[in-house]
């Protein structure tokens, strides 16, 4: 195998790694119906404010993904038309939830781990049916402090193969799940999902990625991302929230 000379990028010697670098990577971002989003913030934000914040964080998350050249394309999976409209407006594909989260099984409210993981698995199957063997990364939709450099590093670490996970800053959740090559996505999002993913064989990725590891669910998470620095859409949304005291109960 010929070796590259500067200034050309060094060509890796092993065929496996060369295939890794050449294989496209597709991101999947899931967002539930805005009407039920961010319920853990309901004590301080009304539903309109929560929807505004979700859309802003999604916008910033997608903008950061777009700045990562290793990720070729993105699909937002959602049952919500407003979320879908935002996704279309920034040029990403939309995949409708197979069972919109209004669907009830035997009258019971479905749990996140039922509806979210089903939506992710369906989207992943659809993408691979259309695109063949692509690397996949599921990213949380609420990563407003994530930096392109963090995601670039995580992608590079994931590409050594198989299924891998970026554990969130609490140490219990998942902010990103990778499935490279032929490996199945096998999403285990929900309570204690970090353990769910590592116990099912996903390799935890180590890196100083505070923004990538901080998905926003609580008031404390909001403080954390504010301190890290958020993207422009989230910053504008937080400014609007401050300006409208009526949104706090
Ligand atoms: N498309 C889709 N996305 C989902 C579904 N359930 C959860 N999600 C998304 O997955 C991520 C984590 O979900 P949750 O933590 O349950 O919801 P959340 O809105 O972030 O916060 P809480 O309501 O406070 O739990 C969020 O971005 C959700 O929008 C689903 O059934 N379908
Ligand atoms: C569903 C998850 O995220 P969240 O922290 O938003 O509940 C998870 O970490 O698996």
TrEMBL record:
It is an enzyme of class 2 (transferase). SUPFAM superfamilies: Nucleotide-diphospho-sugar transferases (SSF53448). Its EC number is 2.7.7.105. Phosphoenolpyruvate binds at residues 174, 190, 193. It catalyses: phosphoenolpyruvate + GTP + H(+) = enolpyruvoyl-2-diphospho-5'-guanosine + diphosphate. Guanylyltransferase that catalyzes the activation of phosphoenolpyruvate (PEP) as enolpyruvoyl-2-diphospho-5'-guanosine, via the condensation of PEP with GTP. It is involved in the biosynthesis of coenzyme F420, a hydride carrier cofactor. NCBIfam families: F420_cofC. This is Phosphoenolpyruvate guanylyltransferase.
């Amino acid at each position: 195998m010929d070796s590259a000379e500067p200034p050309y990028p060094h060509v890796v010697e092993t065929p496996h790694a060369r295939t890794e670098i050449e294989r496209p990577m597709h991101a999947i971002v899931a967002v539930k119906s805005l009407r039920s989003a961010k319920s853990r913030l309901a004590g301080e934000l009304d539903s309109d404010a929560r929807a505004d914040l979700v859309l802003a964080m999604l916008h910033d998350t997608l903008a950061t993904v777009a700045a990562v050249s290793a990720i070729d394309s993105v699909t937002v999976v959602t049952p919500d038309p407003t979320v879908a409209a935002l996704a279309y407006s920034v040029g990403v594909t939309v995949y409708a939830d197979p069972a919109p989260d209004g669907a009830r099984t035997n009258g019971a409210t479905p749990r996140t781990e039922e509806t979210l993981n089903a939506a992710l698995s369906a989207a992943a199957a659809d993408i691979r049916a259309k695109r063949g063997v692509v690397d996949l990364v599921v990213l949380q939709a609420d990563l407003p402090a994530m930096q392109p450099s963090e995601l670039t590093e995580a992608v590079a670490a994931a590409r050594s193969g198989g299924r891998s996970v970026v554990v969130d800053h609490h140490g219990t959740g998942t902010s990103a799940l990778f499935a490279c090559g032929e490996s199945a996505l096998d999403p285990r999002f929900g309570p204690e999902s970090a353990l769910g993913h590592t116990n099912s064989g996903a390799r935890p990725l180590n890196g100083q990625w505070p923004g990538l590891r901080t998905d926003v669910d609580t008031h404390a998470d909001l403080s954390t991302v504010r301190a890290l620095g958020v993207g422009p859409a989230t910053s504008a949304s937080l400014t609007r929230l401050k300006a409208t005291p009526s949104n706090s109960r």
